[in-house]
Amino acid sequence: MAEQVGRYQTQEVLGSGGQAVVWRAVNQDDDSEIALKVMHTGASNEPKMVNELRNEAETLKTFDHPNIVRVLEFNTDLDADKAFIAMELVPNVLSKEELPLS
């Protein structure tokens, strides 16, 4: 289900795991498409988990390489009770559901 997280409107799920979901999202400030990694609500309530996500964002920000996505921001949406990382959206990347099995 699409939702507003910070200044981003989620569009479609690109992938998910035990602690977070990655969405295709739109920045409401400039209509740009981004990838938004949003922690599940339960994980967002755990300071240790939020710190791990913050550390992930800070570490990724130190890299400047064409094969590593650029982190735009780490933030928390107190209204939605969500911690998130906004990242550049890499065009034409296949999800694991679209990859060939052989």
Automatic annotation (TrEMBL):
The keyword ATP-binding applies. InterPro entries: Kinase-like_dom_sf (IPR011009), Prot_kinase_dom (IPR000719). One of its GO terms (molecular function) is ATP binding. It holds the Pfam family Pkinase. PROSITE patterns: PROTEIN_KINASE_DOM (PS50011). Keywords: ATP-binding, Kinase, Nucleotide-binding, Transferase. Residues 8-102 form the Protein kinase domain. Gene3D superfamilies: Phosphorylase Kinase, domain 1. This is Protein kinase domain-containing protein.
